[in-house]
Amino acid sequence: MIVHDFSNENSILNQFILEMRDVTIQKDAMRFRKNIERIGEVLSFEMSKSMDYKTKIVKTPLGEKEMRVPENDLVVCSILRAALPLHTGILNFFDTAENAFISAYRYHPDNADAFEVIVNYLASPSIEGKTLVLTDPMLATGTTLENVLKAFKSHGTPKQIHIISVIGSKPGIEYIQNVFPENTHLWIAAVDDKLNSRGYIVPGLGDAGDLSFGEKL
Prior knowledge:
Layout: E1 2-5, H1 13-21, H2 29-48, E2 53-60, E3 63-70, E4 74-80, H3 84-93, E5 98-107, E6 116-123, E7 131-135, E8 138-139, H4 143-151, E9 160-169, H5 170-177, E10 185-192, E11 194-195, E12 201-202, H6 208-213
Parallel strand pairs: 1-10, 4-5, 4-7, 7-9, 8-9, 9-10
Antiparallel strand pairs: 2-3, 5-6, 11-12
């Protein structure tokens, strides 16, 4: 896996991440969602540099001009519900991409620390020969992305996979490096060192889904 970690670079991403982590600022759900969306835009721009390009001729009022444009056939899949703002940010840049959505959530039997990931919904076009972009704001243990990858096996084989995430843990990144194909690209804005006993990123920011859309029952 090719990891593009922007956590040690000086960029506006750091401001967005700071606001999302801050226990006071993150209470503003609209601002929290907007920061995820903006991170999706920045990471989409960075991802665009790695894509295949082709030459097209555009006709202007005064003549013609050759332009280099991406030729990748993207399918953007977001993990419900937390990744919806990230999905919007990506579509702001790749507006002709096809869309897919998957429901994957943690189930803690008897509220124990141990959990399993339940996938019970996937709506997607064929990904055969296309570029699959998986979006999940929090890459914690990596087991959610592993189960999402398994769910896509019946939808074809993509020519390449990209993962876009906001914050990840080092253990989670190491885990998916052993699960995804070697030519997979991970685009991530920040990386934290560890997980707690329940598999949440420390220091992280909390539950991105709840902060974006309210607590679930």
